[in-house]
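Proteins fold reproducibly. Look at a sample protein:
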Amino acid sequence: MDGLPITAEQFAALPAEFRAILQAIIAHYERRIGLLEARVVELEAELAAAKKNPRNSSKPPSSEHPHAKPKPKAPPSGRRPGGQPGHEKHQRALIPVEDCVAVHDHKPTTCGGCGKSLRGAAPDATPLRKQILEIPPIMPDVTEHRLHRLTCPGCGATTCGALPPDVPTIEAGPRLVALAALLMADFRCSKRKAAAFLQDVLNVPCSPGWVVKLQNFATGALRPAYDDLVARLPDEPRLNIDETPTKQAKLKAWLWTFVAATFTVFSLRKSRKADALHDHLGENFAGVVGCDRAKMYFSIDKVQWCWAHLIRDFQSWIDGPDATAKRLGHDLMRPITRLFELWWNVREGTLTREEFREQSQHDRDEIDSLLLRGVHLATGKPRATCVELRRHRARLWAFAEHDGVEPTNNAAERALRQAVIWRKLSFGTQSAAGSRFVETMLTIIETCRQQGRSAYAFAIEALTARHAGKTAPTLTGA
């Protein structure tokens, strides 16, 4: 009867029948209190989940409204926005005089001081220069090909003329098809908006249906370069992989990204399972994959789990209501902070990877010990996370053992960011042909960015080769 407002002797002195009633009442309310305490824990967990944001969970930054983001901790500097006094001046360079369509010289006719007339040559050979840029009226170059029919005087058969082999089979040249494809894939225009731009700005008679025809033609011309990059994936020593949900018509789909050192491949699949990985990497992939802790990546032997995701998980423990997990999160952050201070030195080239391994060993051991403490003392999801990290601890430190491997999956997430914006605007694709266009164009655009090339110029090259029946160019030689 601990906690009663009477002593044990006073309770024993009560009549037996009254003691039984009092004990029943106490037992009833103890059960009620137990249920209510469990409900409080549940509600606190829900409240903590509601407070999850991109800094303490795997929620993407785009899920948070810009106005909802916390203000920076640094106090206001008091300076006005924009360039500060003394900063290096940046201005647009003037176009060479010989490239101007016209040059007009303007000389004063009267003195600004006394009003006398002025004439003659200017003593100053460097006049002030002001250039006006303007876009000329845009009219497409239209070439008409006429196929005449002639009748044979001998047999009477009628034969029609044939187009030269370098004439496009579609009613648009390479530059127009490339521009239409980039409008939809890189500049995120809808079919209707792309058609409106081509018609209203470029004076090209156009409709959304014709834009789809151009889209499919671009896919066919660029697909060999895409397939060539896909074929290279199994031989890459390092890859960063990520995926994001999307839709194909009314079906759920997944847009995968595979980021190598010199190229990136996007693949739109109807599955998030490990089959998609094996289809692209093969069954015996020997390289190292940077990724998150999703289950399909467990089928790969060498993996580097993303530390950015892990740090957000630990931050969620700090922000949560569980005191044990909160303390564990704070304790883990200390060696992690020291470890990544060393890693920045590796990135800057002032510390070798071998020196990093030696100098970070103490912090790595401390992190391992703290995870072991979480296995024994934590509960719920924090304990499950500690169990998983301890069981697969080699996946935490692959970046320390393998050259070129990064501790985060930021490369894949950066590559996927533009695709996510496209998905939010387009709500996915409506057909398999649309999916092939998206994965092909995103691959070409991101790979050209990595290689410092113009996606527009490469698309023109590929389309020109297709028109001429020549071998398609590739992106593997850069």
Summary: The chain has a mean pLDDT of 88. The CA atoms of residues 174 and 460 lie 5 Å apart. The beta strands are 149-151, 158-160, 238-248, 251-259, 264-269, 288-291, 302-305. The longest strand covers residues 238-248.
